[in-house]
Design goal:
CATH architecture of the largest domain: Orthogonal Bundle
Number of domains: 2
Strand content: 15-25%
Number of helices: 8
Shape: globular
CATH topology of the largest domain: Arc Repressor Mutant, subunit A
Helix content: 25-40%
Order of helices and strands: HHHEEHHHEEHEEEHE
CATH class of the largest domain: Mainly Alpha
CATH superfamily of the largest domain: Winged helix-like DNA-binding domain superfamily/Winged helix DNA-binding domain
Strand order of the largest sheet: 3-8-4-5-6-7
Distance between the termini: 65 Å
């Protein structure tokens, strides 16, 4: 039997709804292959589960066209996302976890904790708007801030920007990002960009003009906002 989460949904159902929400941002349908990869399950198993979730009213699914959540599915998915991100914030702020360790802990806990406990954790933290990696935390009412971010790799030379969000799944990458002095909220100036998808050189604010060279692949994964253009 599938374990049942505090919400009354099975853990498997919550996992599927959350992944489909994350993959289906900006109105796109989540493809079966992408869902299978994210959940580390075989595509035929995903297809069967999508049919069952569609029959239960959580999503709409057309073969070869992917899956999109219904409004009920979206609300349920955001409930799980809220639990996960509040847990990450609490683990780092109150229990001393490093930001590269909290994702896996939150994955294990998000299905077991009650909504009341999550609300008490959020209140104890002052109702944070973002998790430690800069991702917006949905409200208890099911609203979520829609961030408009630019990858660091696309920011023009001479512009001043701020790092806002990084992915939370790759612990090794998070440790490396932290070793460079990067965390959400830090400002920097783009000093140079090498052609043909070459590295980007930035100067981090508040670190005595510390310069760092960021590889193109990593720079594409760092979500930023432009603050200004450096005066020459």
């Amino acid at each position: 039997m599938m374990a049942v989460a505090e919400s009354g949904l099975s853990r498997s159902t919550e996992d599927y709804l959350k992944v489909i929400y994350q993959l289906g941002s900006e109105g796109r349908a989540a493809q079966t292959s992408a869902i299978a990869s994210a959940l580390a399950v075989a595509p035929p198993s995903v297809s069967g589960m999508l049919r069952r979730l569609a029959e239960s009213g959580w999503l709409e699914h057309q073969p070869y066209h992917g899956a999109q959540l219904t409004e009920a599915g979206r609300v349920a998915a955001l409930r799980v996302v809220r639990r996960h991100r509040v847990l990450e914030a609490y683990l780092t702020s109150r229990l001393g976890y490093e930001w590269d360790l909290v994702h896996d802990e939150a994955e294990r806990l998000e299905h077991a904790v009650s909504d009341e406990l999550i609300e008490r954790m959020a209140a104890a933290l002052g109702h944070p708007r973002y998790d430690p990696h800069g991702a917006p935390i949905p409200t208890s009412a099911g609203d979520i801030e829609q961030l408009s971010l630019i990858p660091l790799a696309e920011i023009a030379v001479g512009q001043v920007a701020e790092l806002r969000q990084v992915g939370d799944r790759d612990a090794e990458r998070l440790r490396y990002i932290a070793s460079l002095g990067f965390k959400p909220g830090i400002a920097f100036t783009v000093l140079a960009r090498q052609p043909f998808d070459g590295p980007v050189t930035v100067c981090l604010a508040g670190l005595a003009g510390r310069e760092q060279v960021i590889g193109h692949e990593l720079a594409r994964s760092l979500g930023c906002v432009v603050l200004a253009t450096r005066a020459e």
